[in-house]
Amino acid sequence: MSTLVLELSGPLQAWGDESRFVRRDTRMLPTKSGVVGLLAAALGRRRIDPIEDLAGLRFGVRQEQPGELVRDFQTAIDWRTGKAKPLSQRYYVGDAKFLAFIEGDSTLLEGLAGAIKSPVFPLYLGRRACPPGTRLVLGIRDGDIEDAIESEPWRASERYMRTQPRDAMLLYSRDAGPYDVSDEMVRDVPVSFDPRNREYAWRSVVHGWSRVTNPEGVPSDEHDVMQLLGGI
């Protein structure tokens, strides 16, 4: 078993799972449905094409740098009629970094990595207004998702690392295994991206923390809460 590791980093990201009508929310961690959509776009699949093989891969994500919630209030006018469209609010995660982990057969993962490096359709981080800010593929690791989450180096910015403790904890979320106790159920397994019949199934998720050493961080006996909030 192998795990493909992707870096999801950019000025803005948007990972909605329950948005409706004129309010478009985002979760603060990437969704499985959003990353499966990215893989499908890289392979050149259209919205009406099957995605069962991609949705069946195990998925996990680790928060390298949490970022901030950003609200965008939008107005628009239909240029054909001159009439105003409904006002909308769209939410994003700004200045965040995540690692996404996709577990599966190594041959399949190699094909996915190659497709992401040379995609058929443009790739984005959950929404078309959110292009990646760096290369996505970090590599394919031997072992399962649990191994990759614990062994992958921390990839936050130096500026952010300097505000964190020397013994830092990174939030992660992954698909629950057969012997895990689920922490949350989310409707986040894509069944169909067809705009005429979008459908998502429930996903059982486990949340946890991964410990990393941070030589540039704040010593524990000098832990400064105000510095965590941006400093004064």
Shape category: globular
Query: What proportion of the residues form beta strands (DSSP E)?
Result: 35-45%
Elements, N to C (H/E): EEHHEEEHEHHEEEH
Number of helices: 6
Compute the average pLDDT.
92
CA gyration radius, whole angstroms: 19 Å
* Cα end-to-end separation: 48 Å
What's the story with the biggest beta sheet?
9 strands, mixed
DSSP helix fraction: 10-25%
The total beta strand count reads 9
Structural class computed from helices and strand pairing: alpha+beta
Poorly predicted ranges (pLDDT <50, ≥5 residues)?
Answer: none
Explain what you see.
Helices cover 19% and strands 37% of the residues. It has 232 residues and is of the alpha+beta class. Strands 1, 2, 3, 4, 5, 6, 7, 8 and 9 form a 9-stranded mixed β-sheet that branches. A hairpin with a 6-residue loop joins strand 8 and strand 9 (199-213).
A few lines on this structure:
The chain has 232 residues and is α+β, with helices and mostly antiparallel strands.
Tell me the layout of helices and strands.
Elements lengths: L1 E12 L9 E2 L7 H12 L8 H4 L2 E8 L2 E7 L13 E17 L1 H12 L19 E6 L2 H7 L6 H4 L5 E9 L8 E9 L6 E15 L11 H4 L4
Parallel strand pairs: 2-5
Antiparallel strand pairs: 1-5, 1-6, 3-5, 3-7, 4-5, 7-9, 8-9
Tags for this model:
232 residues, alpha+beta
